[in-house]
Amino acid sequence: MYMKIFVAGATGRVGEELIKNLVEKGHTVYAGARRDDAIEANESVTPVHLDLHGTIDEIANTLTDAEAVYFVAGSRGKDLLQTDLYGAVKMMQAVEKKGIKRYIHLSSLFALQPDKWSGALTDYNISKFFSDNWLIDKTNLEYTILQPGSLKETPGSGKITTNITEKSENSIENVAAVLAELLEQENTIKKVILMGDGNTPINEALKKI
User: Fold this and answer.
1) Rg over CA atoms, the chain
2) What is the pTM assigned to this prediction?
3) Backbone dihedral angles phi then psi of residue 169, each to the nearest 5 degrees
4) Cα-based distances in Å from 87 to 41, 53, 62, 84, 139
5) Distance (Å, rounded) from C-alpha 204 to C-alpha 32?
6) Which residues cross the membrane (predicted)?
7) What's the domain count of the chain?
8) How far is CA 164 from each of CA 10, 63, 126, 185, rounded to the nearest angstrom?
9) Tens of pLDDT along 99-139?
10) CATH (domain of 55)
11) Are 49 and 36 in contact (CB under 8 A)?
């Protein structure tokens, strides 16, 4: 089923690749970003100015008539509280205010398991820990949380593993492909999925969640 989808973080590495995947699947995309002038508009993609420092109402107004929302925005360590943490929470609140149910959230490997954090990413993982918990405990959204390990700009294999017990590496292309596929896999609703590059085709791996 083709949908109207809002992507928060459209100019990021994952966001750009995700939009390509969604358009290939026939969806219409509202591409939300602070630098919306950097997004190329076409018949399937509409750039939208998104300021995660804005109010819940302001964020809700950017969502227009979207039927599902992806949150793949991030500050790359420069604005963790306002963007990665509180920006994510405000987006969830805005989505609920608009009556949208399906919400797919890009997190970080082991974000909900502090005992497995490494020192270099601790502040980032703290932001994801609290935003993930808010999504699970404080909303009624039909969420899926995807937690990949380190992102690499390598070609996607189309194969992953969701059986992760230690650090993993992930092709950005694989992460984007998984995110796009989650929309079609209702068994992933209300699930937290850890992922890494692996040997199982994406569709097959997600069906086993």
Assistant:
1) 16
2) 0.96
3) -110, 150
4) 25, 7, 14, 6, 15
5) 30
6) none
7) 1
8) 27, 34, 20, 20
9) 999 999 999 999 999 999 877 778 999 999 999 999 999 99
10) 3.40.50.720
11) yes
